[in-house]
Specification:
With about 325 residues, the protein is an alpha/beta fold. The chain folds into two domains: about 230 residues, Malonyl-Coenzyme A Acyl Carrier Protein, domain 2 (3-Layer(aba) Sandwich), CATH 3.40.366.10; about 70 residues, 2-Layer Sandwich (Alpha-Beta Plaits). The protein is built from 14 helices and ten strands. Helix 10 runs antiparallel to helix 11. The longest helix is centred in the N-terminal third of the chain and has 23 residues.
Length: about 325
């Protein structure tokens, strides 16, 4: 069976994620054991029973989410014969998509996102910033608000376009706070400051970009086995060079998730599966296209429901 696979990004983590898969499937237990060895600390314990505050740290959340996502996709493949037809991931999730598409070994992907998280954390310490979600305004309005709020060397930019009417902004604290006030005055339904350690997908994390790309290039990357939709421009990438270029732009570019899903849906009319923790992307997809849905597949219960539904349609 073929399915489009989409993979969540940072913010979807929760303590206990992946534990039920590990207890049921020996292959998942092996993945977590190998990950503990590769990283040099117990990412398994942190994921299954750790301190939520520690798990939420960028340098920990990123490898933990990728690990759960790859494990869930592996269970779908091994236990149900589900293979990706096309893949996409939200920010960090793009690395999960690339691992499942065969571009990089899962443990190499784990090493890369651990380093990515460290670099992003360090960038946030050196250049403090923040992010906020703006609900109920269109992209043009939010871009104009960010431009108005940027002054005196402080910047606010659009960081994520998640779905129509759901946009995330990022930048210096003062500029983002000013943009939040302007968005509320403009008539936004909600304006919510996010609990993050930096201004991700903005110029403030640019210092991390070159070092991350150099690190990525040190690994054995391959062409993708299936189409992968990239965040930076919602285009399709397949070759190694295209992928490295997309990742080099991703860190400071806005995540064009709504556009990415339109690209994916234009190329695939079959089932869509969200592999990994949470159900955020499934919710966003319904806002992007009311006629399409993504089936969550992050827990045993999720996977069993998906398989029962699939078998009922056969």
């Amino acid at each position: 069976m073929k399915a489009a696979m989409i993979f969540p990004g940072q913010g979807s983590q929760y303590v206990g994620m992946g534990r039920d898969l590990m207890l049921r499937f020996p292959s998942v237990k092996d993945i977590y054991a190998e990950a503990d060895e590769v990283l040099g600390f117990a990412i398994s314990a942190m994921s299954f029973e750790g301190d939520p505050a520690v798990l939420t740290e960028t340098r920990n959340a990123q490898p933990a989410i990728l690990l759960h996502s790859v494990a869930a996709a592996g269970v779908l493949r091994e236990e149900a014969g589900v293979e990706p037809a096309i893949a996409a991931g939200h920010s960090l999730g793009e690395y999960s998509a690339l691992a499942v598409a065969g571009v990089m070994d899962p443990m190499d992907a784990l090493r890369i996102v651990r380093r990515r998280g460290e670099l992003m954390f360090e960038a946030g310490v050196k250049q403090p910033g923040t992010m906020a979600a703006v609900i109920g305004l269109d992209r043009g309005d939010v871009e104009a608000i960010c431009a108005e709020a940027s002054s005196g060397g402080l910047v606010a930019v659009v960081a994520n376009i998640n779905s129509p009417g759901q946009i995330v902004i990022s930048g210096h604290v003062g500029a983002v706070e000013k943009a939040m006030e302007k968005a509320a005055a403009k008539g936004a339904k909600k304006v919510i400051r996010l609990n993050v350690s930096g201004a991700f997908h903005s110029p403030l994390v640019a210092p991390a970009q070159s070092e991350l790309v150099e690190y990525i290039r040190s690994f054995d990357l391959r062409d993708a086995a299936v189409d992968v939709v990239c965040n930076a421009d919602a285009g399709i990438v397949r070759s190694r060079d295209e992928i490295v270029d997309a990742l080099s732009r991703q860190l400071t570019s806005p995540v064009l998730w709504s556009d990415s899903m339109e690209t994916l849906l234009s190329r695939w009319d079959g089932p869509v599966i969200e592999a990994g923790p949470g159900k955020v992307l499934a919710g966003l997809l319904k806002r992007i296209d009311r006629d399409r849905e993504a089936v969550p597949a992050g827990t045993i219960d999720d996977i069993e429901k998906f398989l029962a539904r699939r078998d009922g349609l056969n």
